[in-house]
Amino acid sequence: MTRQDSGALAAYTAPIYEQVTGWRLDDPGRGVMLEGSLAEGFGNSSSDLDFLVVLPAGASPPLMPSLAFSGGRRVEVRQRDVEQLVEQFRRLGAGRRIGGEPGIEDRLDRCQRFLGGLTLSDPTYAIQKVRESIDADQFADLVSTYCAARARRSLHLACAARLLDDGPAARDWAQSCLHYVAKTWLATRGETYIGRKWLQHQLDRAGAGEIRERFTGLAALIVGGELPDVLANVHEFGRDLGVLTTRDLDLRRLRLCRIRHVTTWDIGSRTHIIQRRARVFVLNAAGARVWRGLAFGRPLAASLASAATSPANAVPAFLYFLWRSGLVRLSWQGGEDLAGKLDCGADTHVDQPVVTLRGGRANDACAQPQAQCLPIGASEFATAGMSLVWANIMIENAREDLEGALDADQIAVASWAIRRIVRDLGLAVLSAEGIIPLPPWEEAASYVIRSPGTPAQVREIMRRLVGIGQPENTTQARHTFGLVKELVDSAREAMGFQEFPRSFETSATWHTTTDIGYDWVRIGAYLDSDFPIEEAHDLLSRQGAEGSVRGGQSVVPGSPDRSGPHG
Amino acid sequence: MSIPNSGAVLVTGISGLLGAEVAARLLADGYSVIGLLHHRAEIRLNNGKALLRADRPAHAGLTVRHGSLAEPDFGLPAAEYRELLAEVGAVVHSGAVTRFDLPRTTYQEINVGGTEEVLKFCQRCAADVDLVHVSTAFVVGTGTSVATERHATSFQPASTNFYEESKYQGELALHRLGFGDRAVIVRPSIIAGDERRGRIREFGNFYVAVKAATSGHVSVIPGDYAASLNLVPIDYVADCVIAALCGAQNLRGTVMHAVSRRAVTMRDFSDVFAEYPELRVPRFVSQESFAAAARAPIERRIYDTTLRNYDPYFIRRVEFASAASERLLGRVPAGGRPYLRRLIDYAVAAGYLGARQAVAS
Q1: In this structure, what are the phi and psi dihedrals at residue A51, rounded to the nearest 5 degrees?
Q2: Rounded average pLDDT over A296-322
Q3: So what's the pLDDT on residue A3?
Q4: Could you tell me if B356 lies within 8 Å of chain A, comparing CB atoms?
Q5: Which pLDDT tens digit goes with each residue over A441-492?
Q6: Residue A487's closest CA among A469, A463, A505, A514?
Q7: CB proximity list for A467: less than 8 A, separation 6 or greater
Q8: What are phi and psi of A535, to 5 degrees?
Q9: What is the tens place of the pLDDT at every residue in B284-311?
Q10: Is A271 helix (H, G, I), strand (E, B) or coil?
Q11: d(Cα A196, Cα A212) in Å, to the nearest integer?
Q12: CB distance from A268 to chain B under 8 Å?
């Protein structure tokens, strides 16, 4: 259908309008337009009918359209008053930053639909007056500017996708670039329809000739051609039409940039990335090597080339993940930011334990660089780590008390120490699972027993520990101690913190203890996480300025009577 | 800018970062500058532009005398020295040894002896010269939590190194030779990159310590998270010196700190460095824990040759008063984490910190 058929179109749509709305077309209080693809001269039998009812200034009609179906077509009726229509054009502004402005495409589309609409009735000349108040040439300039910006951005993104080994995405972006180059050219000839669906028809109508042929050829090349050829040819097309420049395919301009709220923290030898103080990504060894070797502020290609890892072809995919997770930024020098979205990665399954003494778990055996988003937030992660360390310190403290009590035949003290060990083990297990905030100390053991996420073996161990009876004499107490020790060691091994030292045995083991805790303290301070107790912070941040001496003396604050951080 | 005395301004240490910036500001405002140059044939500004290249001044108002602060009469021939006495109307004494790794005698020779030579020169000058003496805010040594802008004669510091000791003694020399009430003393804290971009002509002292600490070879250094380092932009310090010179007649006997409003703590360093994956952040531990820590030979070597010289700065907590400079210039640079980021950004972009280290390690 062409614009010459507008009379036929008006005759066809008018009854539908009246049927759907219940209003007469010649109602003196309403102007009526048909917008959209049919009004533009495109469309087919399944195209929607989009009516715009124009009311006098100040009517303030509801902004939500009403929908109906008629004769197999979807019919939408929107209402606007004259002031609202003028305002929607005014909001387009000067369009200097039109390329990157959020929501701009929608606003351009609304305005263009009005300008390209077919007037069905205009009894008070309201529609005509709004049209006359709009500079159509200026609007076409805005559309042209917008489409040119989109064309450039699409090509830049195609270049990024290509470097990051995402061929399908590179082709899609190349197609977007092709479309927006064509749209830019069309807009300079008054063809301002925003949607891409009817592009070929627009080119035909504009008498594009050779341009149309090149466009069609490029569309086919995008599907089946070699990617470098695709980008080079699309770029050439854009240059020939005056939309793109040589700079738009210069890969040296695609820069890898850091993001301020993304920070890097080592816990022991395990590298973590904290994003916006909210999310934690743990890197395996290969991932950490790549991450620390990134050349920020330099061309992306330089980082890809210098990332010394094997297999080398895994690095682009890893960088793609980092970019789309919002951990790094890509920027086109002289152009725009190509920011990724804040995806947390697709892998959300929970492997227990979530937290180990040395940070999150990562698969160092995998040669490919990996960054795993943890299922708990950054602050919870830091609290869980500190709690895990502290709970283990409490276990060792209680163990020391137990040994001393057995030596002195103090059965009641020994029983209490056993009780502490079991509950603090519960807190350690829950910390390793990332269950933050922790339950009260008194409930820790039974929480573990009831927790479906805890490995069955550990639940069974906890059941046995809780079921241990009160010893009545030293012999029984010693036997119980042996059993408790065996069960605790098994639980620690199952949960991955068996390496925790006998903290109070020597100054060396105390130093190892604080060494484990130091990095957690540092992250926790950065995130303002809750520490189990304040003393833990001070003690561990001094990193064992005092040692521990066997024989009952202990530097643990409040011990030996302390029931634990939640007692 | 308006300097009270007519005559040229003698700038000692003109090839140094601060001396060059001071000279450039004077020349831009039409003053004649005479630079005392020891052995260099080049003077470069912080932005890299040359004031002197292959002994040829890039500005008509600049002349250079090749001499030495360590020698009597600056080591100049007698006639040249007499000419200097007649030409000079004001002196900016910024020449000094600022490294931390030299023998004590070198600091005594240059920083104390050199100051005495400058004072003798001023005494002999034909004119009643104005003198701006560049010292250091760290003349206060340790044991002071708030450093006020008072004369060196009113305290006895526990200096942490030969540099601080020599600068303190240099200030005492001013008083001893009758310039205590005459000179204006400017005490900068740790001079770093310019305020807006963090740009610095060369990466010395503070930067050397940062590079060593973040190289990835150092796992632990003795330090206190609450320790603070006051970093001040080079352009602000140069502005302070110029302002002191312009107001010298009214500011005689004044001591002023050239510092930033907010220092950066070791905690700030830790958190800001975390924003740069290419930098490895060591642990800051107590002296006892540091001594007990197992360290690889390369780490020991780096500490012994470089980081040991900066130990006191990683544990010292001192705030510097800045009322005098704030009154004179109407402002004090903000400092703090944003400034630290600009410094690190510049150093990383320049390739001094970061990527090359990661590859090397």
Answers
A1: -100, 140
A2: 80
A3: 54
A4: no
A5: 888 888 888 888 889 999 999 999 988 877 888 888 889 889 999 999 999 9
A6: A463
A7: none
A8: -60, -30
A9: 888 877 886 778 899 999 998 889 889 8
A10: strand
A11: 14
A12: no
Comparing alpha-carbon positions, the chain A residue that sits nearest to B287 is A545
Q: Residue B346 above 70 pLDDT? A: yes
User: Which one-letter DSSP state was computed for residue A4?
Assistant: G
Cα gap A350→A434, rounded to integer Å: 10
Closest-CA distance of chain A to residue B188, Å: 30
CB B5 within 8 A of CB B252: no
What distance lies between CA A507 and its chain's CA centroid?
A: 45
Q: A96 and chain B: CB distance < 8 Å anywhere? A: no
Cβ of A542 and B289 within 8 Å?
yes
Pairwise CA distance, residues A404 & A410, whole Å:
8
* pLDDT for the residue A10: 87
Q: Is B226 on the interface with A (CB under 8 A)?
A: no
How far is A364 from chain B, CA to nearest CA, in Å? Answer: 19
pTM (2 d.p.):
0.80
Whether residue A558 is predicted with pLDDT greater than 50 in this model: the reply is: no
**Three-class DSSP labels, chain B:** CCCCCCCEEEEECCCCHHHHHHHHHHHHCCCCEEEEECCCCCEECCCCCEEEECCEECCCCEEEEECCCCCHHHHCCHHHHHHHHHHEEEEEECCCCCCCCCCHHHHHHHHHHHHHHHHHHHHHCCCCCEEEEECCHHHHCECCCEECCCCHHHCCCECCCHHHHHHHHHHHHHHHCCCCCCCEEEEECEEECCCCCCCCCCCCCHHHHHHHHCCCCCCEEECCCCCEECEEEHHHHHHHHHHHHHCHHHHCCCEEEECCCECEEHHHHHHHHCCCCCCCCCEEECHHHHHHCCCCHHHHHHHHHCHHHHHHHHHCCCEECCHHHHHHHCCCCCEHHHHHHHHHHHHHHCCCCCHHHHHHC
**Is A537 part of the contact surface with chain B (CB cutoff 8 Å)?**
no
Q: Which two tokens stand for residue A20?
A: 């759907």
How near does any CA of chain A get to the CA of B343, in Å? 15
Q: Contact B278/A292, CB-based, under 8 Å?
A: yes
Q: Does A298 touch chain B (CB under 8 A)?
A: yes
Using the Cα atoms of residue A159, residue A164, residue A169 and residue A170 in order, give the sign of their dihedral: positive
Q: Is it the case that residue A352 has pLDDT exceeding 60?
A: yes
Nearest to residue B10, comparing CAs of B76, B56, B55? B76
Nearest 10 degrees: CA dihedral of B297, B303, B304, B305?
A: 110
Contact of B348 with chain A, judged by CB distance below 8 Å, is answered with: yes
Q: How far is B234 from chain A (nearest CA, A)?
A: 25
Say if residues B147 and B197 touch (Cβ distance below 8 Å). Answer: no
Quick one: closest CA in B to A289, which residue? B358
List all residues 6 or more positions away from B304 whose beta carbon is below 8 Å from its beta carbon. none
Q: Does B360 touch chain A (CB under 8 A)?
A: no
Q: Which tokens go with A399?
A: 């163990």
Taking the Cβ of residue B278 and every Cβ of chain A, the question of whether any pair is shorter than 8 Å is answered with yes
Please state, in angstroms and rounded to a whole number, the distance separating the CA atoms of residues B261 and B255: 17
Model confidence at A559, in pLDDT bands (50, 70, 90)?
Answer: very low
Tell me if A258 and B280 make a contact (CB, 8 A cut-off): no
- Whether A200 has its CB under 8 Å from any CB of chain B: the answer is no
Distance from CA of A270 to the nearest CA of B (A): 13
Minimal-distance CA residue of chain B relative to A307: B359
| CA-based nearest distance A268→chain B, Å | 10
Search chain B and give the residue with CA nearest A511: B289
**Using CA of residue A198, residue A199, residue A205, residue A209, what is the dihedral sign?**
negative
Q: What's the pLDDT at A542?
A: 53
In chain B, what residues touch A319 (CB-CB under 8 Å)?
Answer: none
Strand partners, A54: A31, A80
Mean pLDDT of chain A: 84
